[in-house]
Amino acid sequence: MNNFFKLLAWVWLLVVLLLIGITAVNRPVLDTSMMSLLPQSEQQPLVKAASEQMGRQFSQRLLILVTASDKEIRQASSTALADSLRALPQVSSVLSQFEASTLTQYQQTLYPYRYGLLTDELVTLIDTDKSDIVKQRALSRILNPVSLGGHSLVDDPFGLMSSWLEQLESPINVTSEDDYLKLRGKNDTYLVIVNLADDAFSMATQKAVLGVYQQQKDKLEDKGVSLQLSGLLVHADAGAKQAQKEMSTIGIGSLLGIVLLMWWVFKRFYSVTLLLLPVFIGLIVASSVAFLMFERVHIVTFAFGAGLIGVAIDYALHFLCERQQRRDVISHILPGLALGLLSSVLAYAAQAITPFPGLRQMALFSIVGLISAWLTVVLWLPLMTRRLPITTPRLSDRIYRWQQQLPSVGQSLSVRILLIFLTIAAAISVFYGETEDDIRLLQTSPPELLAQEQYVQHALGLNSSTQFLLNPCEQIELCLQQEEQLKPVLERLQQQGQISHYRMLSESVPSKKTQTNNSQRVARLYQQELSSLYKLLNASEQMSGQAWHKLDNDKLNRLTPDRKDEQGDYCPHRLLSQNKPV
Prior knowledge:
The protein is α+β, with helices and mostly antiparallel strands. The protein is built from 22 helices and twelve strands. The model is unreliable at 564-582 (pLDDT under 50).
């Protein structure tokens, strides 16, 4: 039997080393998002996928406000900040300026589809036989060519493209000043947009990006420039630092307390080492298994796992206490240790059946940690203590005498009354106490970060309470048509003050059905007003024929969301309206 236990001890050592090696090779990733602790929307996978997609778009973006009274200093500071962040491998792109050619590129992308892109106002005017108003507005644009998109008396005599671009509203309060992104209403503030190449919860990304940002902030403050930062990266970094602090406080505090107490009792450094060994093995193996089982392990799991110290050390403590009286320890305490392990594992296993991913991680971490500590005590400690003498610590007798002086529950009426009172008070607090399940209580960001976040969001005109509607359908064309049918309802809600504003894909990419109807409206507009418009402009009949020819060539062009241009994917929501980057 001894040889068999020795073999098991060697096998357990190999397992521990193998797990440590696999974990080191796989490069574990920590998670600091409080949202990942919440239940997954397994009953609504479409909602979950949409939420994750929207979350990724916002989580990997930083918004930085650069404020300075002097224009040259403000521009130089924005450029320096953008260049320093752009040089980081953790950053995919930085936008602090946009060139005038960008607007021209988007216009050229949309221009072939101009006959199918009409604003709601133009549709109403044409449908209500008020095409003469369209003509008067086009004439005004031609005579005063300051509108977006320019005019071509042949390609677009009524300025359809200009009207379409001008209707696109920016979701943020940003305009342009010398190609820099400037906040509307704040002449002393520029905007720098940072897109991360990695996850915002990556500690390496947090350290690199926020390190460079802080360096630039310290330099620019000497020049009278202030920076305000908004983004998930900031709060993830604050949460990670707080979790690390709490984990260190709980873990190190518990460890020091146990070490001092065990040293006071056993008076041997080797005994203290034997007590701590199962704890360390349990934590190491639990961490390795957690990283193997989960793509990301939340840092709160490790903070929670620090509580294993108080449980796992009991196994070694029972062993060493029994070792003070006899050498054959395992045969006497193994049933008790097994029962203690089973009860603890069952208690933690109850967490694994909950829908909370965070609790599942904690349950796995605790169960594996306890089993590992238990195996270490049963397999390793008998071999490591075979030469220790049998001695009873003097402190044991002293503690026993102290125990005899304490009042007995069976003999003291006052103690029984006190216990009954405490039991009743505990029961009342359980049944009548109030619970709070507000997710905002999980928000641990410092007040100064929350204030800075609110300031930036308010300055940009963003709303943190944005909701979205999902419109599942088999074809994108059907989705666009259903969106267009929903628009009157949203308009009515906006007029009633139920919603502040809304955005939908069909505003930028109308359905093919709507584009076909719009092309027919343009043909009717040409029939009614083109000749009189050219007559007012003293244009030739040849130009009128060319305009009709252009309409016949391009009126069948249909803009779709998956349309690509020479620059890459075409994204309607990135269009620029007049001095309003979207």
